[in-house]
Every structure is written in C-alpha cells, then in structure tokens.
C-alpha cells in the first residue's frame, strides 16, 4: 500500500531535539511566515489524554509522566487524523495549500526508529529533519524555568531525567538514521529564541519562499 499522503504534494518536516530544545517555540514562529501547519505530537497526545471517551487516556498519562514513548499506532493515528482534517480545511486557501498540497511541521516526532519507519512508509515520506541541538545542562535549566508556568506533569526533575534517558536511547538513533540519508539540518540551540530563529529561517528560506514574496 502506498502512503496515505503523496509526498510530492504534502511536505513533512520533522522537528527534533531534546526536551526543552525549543522545538515548539521555533515551530510556532515558522507558522506565520511560511504557512506551515504545526502539529506537536505531544500536544495531540495531551489532548487525547483528556478527551472524553478515549480508551488511551490512562496509558498516555503514564507514558508522559514516566518519559516513555506512547505506542506508535496511537500517535500515528492522531497525526494522520489531524493532517487529514487540516488538508480538508485549508484546501484551496493558497499559500502552498492548493490542489491537495500542504506543508506540515511535525514537532517532537518520531521519537524512535520504529515510528520513523512506520510514518514514512504508511503516512507520508518526510523530507527533512530540523534538529535543535544543545547540552543537557541547557535543557534541564529551560524545563525547570518552564515548569513554573507550564502546568505539565512531566516538567519536574524526576521526569526530565527519564525523558533525557529516552531521548538518548531511542530518539538520537532517529537523528543518526536521517543523517545517514542527508536529511538533517542541525541548528545549535543554546542561544536566544531570536538567534535560533535566524538560523532556522536561513534553512527554511532555501526550501520555501515566504508566500508574501511570491506576489512581488
Ligand atoms: N510522546 C510520545 N510520542 C511522541 C511524542 C511525545 O510518546 O511522538 C510523549 C512522551 O512521553 C514525551 C511526552 O509525550 O516525553 C512529551 O512530549 P513533548 O514533545 O510534548 O515534550 P517536549 O520534548 O517538547 O518537552
Ligand atoms: Mg514541545
């Protein structure tokens, strides 16, 4: 069976990096300029966790607290459903969303090799990985700061340590695998949000011209 979405029309960019690396922040900044749809796998899981009638609520809660990876079929289905809905909703709106075309930033996914393979084979072949790279010290410091306001059950030192372990063990191999396919753009991300965004834009500019400039 071919993938659900045709990668010549639907562009998927994965956004990876440790917890607190700035994946969500940078993705949100890219949305306006390039008309991306930003999907955060973690946010989709948190929404499913509290959805009335979900059979996965308890499983998701436990995985998130323990910093482990929710079974792939759950996350992949949530991503597929979200992509289908957004493609229908934005169809014909222009800015890269005509004729079944679309462009997605998928943040915090894939978190292990099996998810990467399964998504590329069955949902949509991804075209690029933006990899936000910084030290564990920086990651821990940022999440402790974020914990003051995030309300996230996994923004505490114990969960952070578990998340970092999962990241090293399961997610770094994904980055290495895509590196071997020349699909990774690494962005040093210890600096300020603005500095990191400047480096991000340089990479994305080479792929897409912001729609506002097409008309000129
Ligand atoms: N998670 C998962 N599969 C995914 C993405 C997230 O199981 O594809 C779970 C995992 O337990 C992870 C948590 O959701 O630790 C939070 O992920 P998120 O990406 O929101 O955290 P971040 O890395 O941005 O801090
Ligand atoms: Mg995030």
UniProtKB/TrEMBL annotation:
Q: Which Gene3D superfamilies does this UniProt record tie to the protein?
A: P-loop containing nucleotide triphosphate hydrolases (3.40.50.300)
Q: Which Pfam families match?
A: ADK (PF00406)
Cellular-component GO terms for this entry:
cytoplasm; nucleus
On the tree of life, the source organism's domain of life is Eukaryota
E.C. code? 2.7.4.14
Q: Which PROSITE patterns match?
A: ADENYLATE_KINASE
The EC category is transferase
Which family is annotated?
Belongs to the adenylate kinase family. UMP-CMP kinase subfamily.
Report the protein name in the record.
Uridylate kinase
Question: Where, by residue number, does ATP bind?
Answer: 20-25, 146, 191
Q: Name one GO biological process term.
A: 'de novo' pyrimidine nucleobase biosynthetic process
Q: Where is this region: NMPbind?
A: 40-70
Catalytic reaction(s) noted: UMP + ATP = UDP + ADP
Give the main location: cytoplasm
According to the record, the residues making up region (LID) are 145-155
| The keyword Zinc is annotated on this UniProt entry | no
Which cofactors, by name?
Answer: Mg(2+)
Instruction: Outline what the protein does.
Output: Catalyzes the phosphorylation of pyrimidine nucleoside monophosphates at the expense of ATP. Plays an important role in de novo pyrimidine nucleotide biosynthesis. Has preference for UMP and dUMP as phosphate acceptors, but can also use CMP, dCMP and AMP.
Q: Where in the cell is it found?
A: Cytoplasm; Nucleus
List the source organism.
Agaricus bisporus var. burnettii (strain JB137-S8 / ATCC MYA-4627 / FGSC 10392)
